[in-house]
Design brief:
Elements (H helix, E strand, L loop, with lengths): L16 E2 L1 E4 L3 H11 L5 E5 L5 H6 L1 H20 L12 H12 L2 H11 L2 E5 L2 E5 L2 E4 L2 E5 L2 E3 L3 E3 L13 H4 L8 E5 L3 H12 L3 E5 L11 H13 L3 E3 L4 E7 L2 E6 L4 E4 L1 E4 L3 E3 L13 E2 L3 E2 L13 E3 L12 H16 L12 E4 L5 E5 L2 H6 L4 E7 L4 H4 L7 E7 L5 E7 L3 H13 L4 H5 L12 H4 L1
Parallel strand pairs: 1-7, 2-3, 2-8, 3-4, 8-20, 10-11, 10-16, 11-12
Antiparallel strand pairs: 5-6, 6-7, 9-17, 13-14, 14-15, 18-19, 21-22, 22-25, 23-24, 24-25
Length: about 450
Amino acid sequence: MTHASSTTLPTDAARDTFDLVVIGAGMAGLAAARKVASKGRRVAIVDSRPYGGTCALRGCDPKKVLIGLADLVDAQERLRDHGLRGASAIDWAQAMAFKRTFTEPLPAKLEAGLVRAGVTPLHGEASFVAPDRLRVGRDTIRSEAFLIATGATPRPLSLPGAEHLATSSDFLELDALPNRIVFVGGGFVSFEFAHLAARAGAHVTVVDRHARPLTAFDPDLVDRLVDESRARGIDVRSERSVTAVDARRNGCTVHLDDGATIDADLVVHGAGRVPDLEGLDLDAAEVPFDPARGVQVNDRLQSVGNPAVYAAGDAAATDGPPLTPVAVHEGLIAAANLLGGEPRRPDYRGTPSVVFTGPPLARAGLGEEEARAAGMDLDVRSGDMSRWFTARRTREPVAAYKVLIDRQSDRIVGAHLLAGHAAETIDLFALAIRHGLTRRDLKTSVLVHPAAASDVVYMI
């Protein structure tokens, strides 16, 4: 089939076609479907799993519910005999029941909302049969355009016994917390769940092949977090690889490349994720893709092979980090370009990211090495905040910061935080970076005191 150089949605499509079919009912797909349907176009959305995607059902949101409980237990322990008496503990079964009050009602609510918005919900495995046709279950539908927003899935591991590893989704559905847990890999999943499980009473080991985990974050602050993780009883084994996992009657034995073995009741895959494109038969749609990065798109999120197809979120090979807000941003950009008008392009400047450990680790903008590689003359402001009022009032033992300022422009270009308030405070830096605010702009701002965000004035 010959395609035009660009695709916009017609307003008078034939009755037997859709203007847009969205593949994947996660946050990116939902945002795009609603936006296009709001303009009166015929839109369908398809997913083989309950609507909501990883973030709402199997990731960010349920994880944060459980981590919120862990944070409360941690705070009470720090303040025991400093105004609080007694101790709390996580009841895992009750915690999971509480978590399910958020996740279980959501798919039906989302689907009902889509119907009200004029979107046709479809369920089943989707695969292309032609550049303009998609098979969903036994049915074949035609569309003027498609948006691939299928997210990511755990990266396949080639080690013997990989089939015995649980996924992050499995972890978030555990009815009981195992006593001994090994996390394979040193990224978000491993560290967030390791801190949660350790606070809930499990014996936790993290095995990471890198010299330093959490490679996307500031190395100095990562080192502090690793030290704090070990102080909390988490066994972090760096520069070690898992070579095999043997199943036993009551658990697994994990073999490492140094000859050591670890007995575990549960082994969790935290060794990275890849775009979830299997089964889509993208070749039939003339859509080039990289299995490790996703659908190859131009700067308008349009397939470089089939301009009727767009991609957003973790399924797209873009420069955007694999974060839910980025996926939503890309979904809305793709929707705007589908609708026509002035082409729009994603803007990733200042995108914040947080690892919800104890304490959380956050970043926005450039890292120090990235900024220096770009030729910037940096003013690096860094220090320990553990004796500042914000940390002292809750007896946080670890709190630190690093802020990067371009001397030539006086603009904030990067910020890195390790502190209990990092997840909220980093958003202030993200706004500053995205909108080009200078150090002076922030320093002369009048902020609420003693809110944690007011500490930014002292960081710069």
